[in-house]
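Same chain as my last thread, 127 residues:
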Amino acid sequence: MTNALPPLHNGHAPFTLQELFREALYAFEEWDAELTEPIVTFEGRVVPISQVFEAMRQCDDIVPMNIVGAVTERLTKPWEGEGPLDQMSFSTAARVMGVLVRKRLLANGVPEIAAVAEQTAERHSDS
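reply #2:
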């Protein structure tokens, strides 16, 4: 499967990917009790929010403060940024959000469902 998202350039994300990160964060905020992971769209493609967060894991760009607040309010421990301005990189924010998505999916039992579907597909391909 090829990644439908634009690549980073020397640790920097294109503006469109930064905006998509913001959309994925909002989608996470609105994620209620559904079992399925929220999605966002990019250039007409449907993308799970975890894929957006994964695409930003190596991004060195600084997160705007309004996004920092949206990420840190979900943490169970206080967060302290690096440097005098308490800045957070998209890499840090993406890693935090990726963990939160996985935790939510585990709480909803989705990985078990995916594992069963994967095993069923493997059995059919072995036949």
